[in-house]
Design a protein that fits this description.
InterPro entries: AAA+_ATPase, AAA_lid_NorR, Homeodomain-like_sf, HTH_Fis, P-loop_NTPase, PAS-like_dom_sf, PAS_4, Sigma_54_int. Keywords: ATP-binding, Nucleotide-binding, Transcription, Transcription regulation. This is Fis family sigma54 specific transcriptional regulator. The protein is an alpha/beta fold. The protein has four domains: 117 residues, PAS domain (Beta-Lactamase); 150 residues, P-loop containing nucleotide triphosphate hydrolases (Rossmann fold); 69 residues, Helicase, Ruva Protein, domain 3, CATH 1.10.8; 41 residues. It is built from 18 helices and 18 strands. The strands form six sheets. The protein has a five-stranded antiparallel beta sheet, sandwiched between helices. A five-stranded parallel beta sheet has the order 9-12-15-8-16. A hairpin with a 5-residue loop joins strand 1 and strand 2. The longest helix has 16 residues. The chain starts with a helix and ends with a helix. It binds adenosine-5'-triphosphate. The site of adenosine-5'-triphosphate has 18 residues, from strand 7, helix 6, helix 12 and helix 14.
Length: 438
């Protein structure tokens, strides 16, 4: 490999608009293009340093620090690899999609790697005034899927409990797609009657029915060039599922009272909190429609699967709902929120924060404000009596912990690792505590 080849590669990369670096197999940065220096350089000397040190402040390669390393994956596979990482950038930590491609010499041997970095603008790892926030492994896993599918035209099915952010994710997919400049049209499928569904989706011609005094464009037409988001698709009655299937299969629709079949041009994103596969088994959801809408499924994690995100979410949501800007939670309030279970997920968290912010007069929001505004049944306060957890007298702490662990284990339902995360201890500590009492 000649130095001439390397300098040609560098000057070629310099002309490209996306941030790129050239790396050697020992993780050293050999060159950075102008876009990289501008976006990620931050005035620092980059060339000659190790990528894991620049992007992660690690002292060892990512795969030795518990992260996936695209360079190692690319070397092993001999082809490009993509991962989503949290990188230190001049703006703080950001979600960055990293694509690493091997560069071969004339004998076919891999001599360099080119890494392309794209900051994910649709999600923030820090408190943000809008959009998706999160940095837990469950959130990053979902974000990775989202960013992979967004540029394609594939139909995405978002599956997740109520309040987990399905609509926000649908919008982020739209924003990260080639259709971002087109419209994003959301349709709530719950409570749709046959007539309403057709008129809403397909529009109608003047005189199609009593009251149709003018031609009206439907939502399918309004979504032209953009994304159609069908929320609560599991609520669609069977008769309407047929009509939707016809639209998806033929790519055409007809306005109510109209004669012409018009071409549809939208990317479909659907969402449901229901178990659609079980509905297909029970024959309440059409199998053919299920396969049409489910080209790429993405599960939005429940809040208890990403409880390490609660402080970040809480800070972001407070900034979004509070009428007094700049207020923060006390540490105790953050700890209280992190320990509470939100069956309504982020929506319930947001509602509680909004109420507490209205109730608090001072400069910060404390536990008392949250407790006062908490309308869910009080969480079992403390000794397992078989049905629940209650304490009516002062008892030794170790007995309390032991009884609480019993109760938490029965109530939690997940595996030990997720219970440990919920309890804010390591899995090893949890096992140690459980062994001690057995
Ligand atoms: N990752 C996130 N970061 C910040 N806010 C979020 C996030 N996910 C959800 N939210 C907020 O939580 C609330 C509920 O989100 P959304 O309406 O998207 O949930 P959903 O899953 O579509 O709910 P449903 O199934 O009930 O329609 C919204 O206020 C949304 O802005």
């Amino acid at each position: 490999m000649t130095s001439h080849f390397l300098s040609e590669l560098i000057s070629f990369l310099d002309g490209l608009p996306e941030p790129r670096i050239v790396m050697s197999a020992d993780y050293r940065i050999i060159a950075a293009n102008a876009a990289y220096t501008r976006e990620f350089g931050g005035g620092r000397e980059i060339v000659g340093r190790a990528c894991y040190e620049v992007s992660h402040r690690f002292s060892v390669p990512c795969d030795q620090a518990g992260e996936s390393c695209p360079l190692k994956l690319s070397l092993e596979a001999g082809e490009p690899q993509r991962v989503l990482h949290l990188h230190h950038t001049p703006r703080g930590e950001e979600h960055v999609a990293v694509e690493t491609s091997p560069i071969r010499d004339e004998t076919g041997e891999i001599v360099y790697f080119v890494e392309t970095m794209r900051v994910v603008r649709q999600a923030s790892s820090r408190a943000a005034a809008r959009g998706l926030v999160g940095r837990s492994p469950a959130f990053v896993g979902m974000l990775d899927k989202m960013m992979r599918v967004a540029p394609s035209n594939a139909a995405v099915l978002l599956l997740g409990e109520t309040g987990t952010g399905k609509e926000l994710v649908a919008h982020a997919i739209h924003e990260a797609s080639a259709r971002a400049d087109g419209p994003f049209v959301a349709v709530d499928c719950a409570g749709m009657t046959e007539t309403l569904f057709e008129a809403e989706l397909f529009g109608y011609e003047k005189g199609a029915f009593t009251g149709a005094t003018h031609r009206k464009m439907g939502l399918v037409e309004a979504a032209s060039g953009g994304t159609l988001f069908l929320d609560e698709i599991g609520e669609l009655p069977l008769a309407l599922q047929v009509k939707l299937l016809r639209l998806l299969e033929t790519g055409t629709f007809r306005r109510v009272g109209g004669l012409d079949w018009l071409p549809a041009d939208f990317r479909l994103v659907s969402a449901t909190h229901r178990d659609l596969a079980a509905m297909v088994q029970a024959e309440t959801f059409r199998r053919d429609l299920y396969f049409r809408i489910n080209t790429f499924p993405i599960r939005t994690p429940a809040l208890h699967e990403r409880s390490s995100d609660i402080p970040l979410l809480a800070e972001s949501l407070l900034g979004r709902v509070d009428r007094k800007p700049g207020r923060r939670f006390t540490e105790a309030a953050q700890a209280w929120l992190s320990g509470r279970r939100f069956s309504g997920n982020i929506r319930e968290l947001r509602n509680l924060i909004e109420r507490a912010s209205l109730f608090a007069d001072g400069d910060s929001i404390d536990v008392a404000h949250l407790v006062e505004m908490d309308d869910s049944p009080p969480a079992p306060a403390a000794v397992a009596d078989g049905s629940g957890f209650a304490v009516d007298r002062v008892i030794p702490l170790d007995r309390l912990e032991s009884a609480y662990l019993d109760w938490a284990r029965r109530t939690h339902g997940g595996d030990a690792a997720s219970l440990a995360e919920r309890l804010g201890v390591s899995t090893r500590t949890l096992y140690r505590k459980l062994e001690r009492r057995e």
